[in-house]
Amino acid sequence: MIKFLDLHKINHRYEAEIRERIGAVLDSGWYLQGKQNERFSRAFADYCGVAHALGVANGLDALTLILKAYGFGEGEEIIVPANTYIASILAISQCGCMPVLVEPDLETYNIDPDLIEQRITDRTRAIMVVHLYGQAVRMERIWALADKYGLKVIEDAAQAHGAFYQGRRVGSLGDAAGFSFYPGKNLGALGDAGGITTADEALFEKIKAIANYGSDYKYHHIYKGVNSRLDEIQAGILEVKLQYLDEDNARRRQIAAFYREHIVNPQVLLPWTYAEDAHVWHVFVVRVPRRQAFQAYLEEHGIQTNIHYPTPAHRQLAYTEWAELSMPVTERIHEEVISLPISPVMSDDEAGRVVEIVNGWR
Amino acid sequence: MIKFLDLHKINHRYEAEIRERIGAVLDSGWYLQGKQNERFSRAFADYCGVAHALGVANGLDALTLILKAYGFGEGEEIIVPANTYIASILAISQCGCMPVLVEPDLETYNIDPDLIEQRITDRTRAIMVVHLYGQAVRMERIWALADKYGLKVIEDAAQAHGAFYQGRRVGSLGDAAGFSFYPGKNLGALGDAGGITTADEALFEKIKAIANYGSDYKYHHIYKGVNSRLDEIQAGILEVKLQYLDEDNARRRQIAAFYREHIVNPQVLLPWTYAEDAHVWHVFVVRVPRRQAFQAYLEEHGIQTNIHYPTPAHRQLAYTEWAELSMPVTERIHEEVISLPISPVMSDDEAGRVVEIVNGWR
Ligand SMILES: Cc1ncc(COP(=O)(O)O)c(/C=N/[C@@H]2[C@@H](O)[C@@H](OP(=O)(O)OP(=O)(O)OC[C@H]3O[C@@H](n4cc(C)c(=O)[nH]c4=O)C[C@@H]3O)O[C@H](C)[C@H]2O)c1O
Ligand SMILES: Cc1ncc(COP(=O)(O)O)c(/C=N/[C@@H]2[C@@H](O)[C@@H](OP(=O)(O)OP(=O)(O)OC[C@H]3O[C@@H](n4cc(C)c(=O)[nH]c4=O)C[C@@H]3O)O[C@H](C)[C@H]2O)c1O
To answer: Which residues carry this modification: N6-(pyridoxal phosphate)lysine (chains A, B) (predicted)?
Structure first.
């Protein structure tokens, strides 16, 4: 059986270092907002090439905190791709803003820059781009629009730790970025975790306070804040794993290249990238017409898959107000996509076996 | 130096068990929503004597989730004591509800039941009681009011794990309860953590979904949810520590009894309890007229203290809309309280030394 993602194996590679780091936290008796957070956020900011990083509780919180810090709310609109994990959209709803869904293009699955301008109104405050499946959004057009209309650019970088656009890492491409360190992510904690990066110091300080009960120092509350922090244990684990992220991403690229070279099945549409270093292959998503049968076939042949995602946000019960909305590109993607196993711990043999089985599908 | 709270020492007692439990999570490769959560929430529900418990990210989230699950929002009012950690109040604001502050009584520091009824309007939806400093609120009057006006009773039990009222534990006294497992709490994790208890199965299921991106099962989103979950690592640690909670609370009671018997200084007003098993002494709060000088004096004599809390919510910048509000009892408490060291790992000698120094204050 080839697992979709063998997290135990992934983390086992660093088990000694991870145990040591957890041990250090236990020995310190300090579990929150301490040295491990300082070290990890310094290292992560440097990695992304941006001035500030802050650990928070999870990826959804990261996005929500950014929007809250900007003060966006009732009556204001945020542009977001219709094709994303629902969390991008939930963050916007959470703040009382209206998510304005825009179709992706079928080549990158990322938001279609050509369709954004027509959705901008005088209530639009920001464009949230999602670097989906591991591929950085081509930002040129987005920046131009943001400039033209005075909008903030917020990156949802949950799926693309380490990906580049024009030589810059995601997390440094917008005004602020939210990351998820959910265990299954390219950089994953051993529990829920998230992060925010930004070059904007005032925004950074405001987010830090909002995420800490709205306080800038102990018992001094300047905002109606929340609690969203990164445990020292998880910060320590993430600092360990960050050292290996580029290596891990390189291995993902190898496997993706291997798949893209050797999967030759007219029924299976392969993913594409506009630049090799733009993509960190968080998931390897193909499109097939009869997805359910294909998935069952793979399962039968010992290959676990996942679907990112089966149902778009506008077809979820959580958003019945969008029941009439038609998003044909998004809907088609959600009907046809299926994610093949990919991970830094997959062997060449396993990848070869996936190719063989996929090529055998009729 | 006698620390205010020696968390390293507290947790070191179970270090072997905690390391083993963390090891088990590492070995399993499963870090969220797994067996450790199941086990801990079962054990915690049983401990509280209530049907359901759910681990969430922290105590503030726990309260917010309860209010969200009830659907309380804009234009609705929640009654809450003015004398509390600001998180109780932030949870209410977070949902768009109006917190209606009620003064505490000076005997228990808990909400004054006599002052609640006059604050009930046709927009009131719930009474949030806070079992402050470790002492369960006397619920009789609260229940009667809730009955009379059809209000929900929500417990903020962040400071009172294990305390009893009329033979029932906090967490089982209202319609739903929020707990914090912040490291410094009587039951504390090694990071942020929280929990919810309720006998109401429908509410429980709804909260579980809301806290999991609004989904009742994978990729099926029925609410505009958030991400608020308890890491498997923290659930495992909490299950270990829960076994010793009653013992720990018993030791806290001993120290409190010792303080109450031996501190005899007319300048130092001791705390009171209406029933021994009602109080778990999360903090040992005394009132002194010249607090700042008293705190400096203790510090000079090697005794760390803390203040719960220096500034009430209605005097914080986060709530400038309350700048004109006058809450004399609450304000007086905030001016005079100071918390002496108390913890399950304090020795008799240390407690004796605190008594001696406190009695020497003029
Ligand atoms: C664009 C975007 N924005 C915001 C967010 C929100 O970030 P968050 O709040 O941090 O979740 C996401 C999150 N995104 C992900 C989302 O993509 C989805 O990811 P998924 O691939 O379906 O995840 P999964 O199936 O639970 O896990 C992947 C594999 O890993 C295995 N596993 C998992 C766990 C937890 C384990 O302990 N052990 C395992 O072996 C099981 C699976 O085979 O669902 C998650 C809950 C979200 O965090 C996003 O993609
Ligand atoms: C009624 C009520 N409702 C909701 C809540 C919200 O719950 P939460 O979201 O889980 O915080 C609270 C939280 N309540 C507490 C609040 O009472 C206050 O508690 P505190 O006693 O001031 O806490 P502290 O000074 O940070 O820690 C206590 C001692 O422990 C030491 N320490 C601390 C840490 C974190 C450590 O790692 N190592 C240490 O040695 C330092 C201190 O000497 O501030 C916390 C941040 C809140 O979680 C509440 O009281």
So the answer is: 185
